[in-house]
Amino acid sequence: MKSIFITLIFFNLSLAVQAQIDSTLLRRSPVDTTKAKGMNMDAVYNRPFLQMGKMPVSLGGYVEADYQYMGEDGVTDGHTFRIPRMTLFVASTIHRKIKFLSELELEEGGKEISIEFAAMDFSFHPLINLRGGVVMNPIGAFNQNHDGPKWEFVDRPVAMTQMLPATWSNVGFGLYGKQYVNDWAFGYEAYVTNGFDDSIISNAENKTFLPASKASKDRFEESSNGRPLVTGKLALRHNMVGEIGLSYMGGVFNKFQDDGLVLDDKRRLDVLAVDVNTTLPFSKTYVVGEWAWVMVDVPETYSQTYGNKQRGGFIDVVQPVLSQPMLGFSNAVLNIACRLEYVDWNVGKFEETGGNISDHLWAIVPALSFRPTAQTVIRANYRYMQQTDLLGNPPALISGVQIGVSSYF
Which Gene3D superfamilies match (predicted)? Predict the structure, then answer.
């Protein structure tokens, strides 16, 4: 409650200050969030910020709100309204080669408050930049490029939130850099941070579940086992084609010793991911997708409900159908879109029977979105999803309507 109170005071004071100054002193950085500018690694700074005069601090953020009417096998809980998150950004250029950015997220109406990013960047050379603080681990692309106003869909991809821990960040240090050659751009990131803990195989989900480690706030103060989590990514982009990225994240996740006493073998977690995005020049169709593989060293004493291999991903196709002045907005765009997604939490076969372990899910989500401005989206989705349990019984059928808004401010 104390954290919520302090946050609200800070937010209200910032609004009061803005109300008292001449609006001509305020300027907003013009960012078109519907188009991929730069690379995914630039997403942390590729946001609109509001700056007052020549003050060194810039403010920004975004909000999401939605309505849902979902049902499972013909049973529904009725109509639901949510505000899943509101995020605040504070950035400062301390020196032309030293920058600071923080990202504070209030989830579920303020029930949870988390620091998703709070790091300082020191630029020594385009290919050598130091980053330290709370960093966003660059596994895949969605983990870094997750802002709601950039997407045409109400829900975040299932594989990136329920298999990988979306908005996964940790305290640590690392290097990153980019190099441009004509229409080509090459980028890399490499970090060592605190990481996962035993909760990925000891949790209420009763399965291997990486997002369980997000509940541990101790990772911002100390490592659970004294071993760093290593995350690295290589990305290649062509201005006329698009971007492809390859990333890896891995390390020891269990507490294998305590005060020098060996408790268990060192058990590793390793994640590989590939992400792509492109815009087809002849139709302006935007395609973005990501796929990841998870390998976890699960103890033999655990049941087979805990998978040692997982895989999943998504692909979005977004097609602008109307781009013209509409309803008083000079640069409005109407899009149709579709998302395909799949996740398998337990890749393998039962040891006793040789039958397939079927803990998987797939979904198709057609969408219609209206962008009155580049930084605001009104979106309507229909989600159809089938989820199959461990034993491969007939799948649960989940479907419903989702309507939401999201905007930077």
Answer: Porin
List the structure tokens of 347: 């890749």
Which residues partner with 67 through β-bridges?
81, 403
**Which residue carries 């004294």 as its tokens?**
226
Which token pair is 177?
């850099």
**Other residues' Cβ atoms within 10 Å of the Cβ of residue 47:** 24
Q: SS3 for 122?
A: strand
Domain CATH number, residue 94 = 2.40.160.10
CA distance 82 to 156: 14
Number of structural domains the chain divides into: 1
Neighbours of 113 (CB within 10 A): 13
> What residue spans of 109-248 are helical by DSSP H?
158
Distances (CA, A) of 155 to 105, 229, 252, 402: 16, 28, 31, 9
Q: What's the full length of the chain, in residues?
A: 409
Which regions of 327-375 does DSSP assign to beta strands (E)?
329-344, 360-373
Other CB atoms within 10 Å distance of the CB of residue 110: 15
Question: Within a 13 Å sphere around the CA of 333, how many CA atoms are in the beta-carbon half?
Answer: 18
Beta bridge partners of 309: 295
| Ordered DSSP codes for 242-279 | EEEEEEEEEEE-S--EETTEE-S---EEEEEEEEEEEE
pLDDT along the chain (409 residues), means of 10: 42 38 42 56 90 83 97 93 95 94 87 90 97 96 96 97 95 96 96 96 94 91 93 96 97 88 91 97 95 96 94 98 95 97 96 91 98 97 96 95 97
58/49 Cα distance (integer angstroms): 6
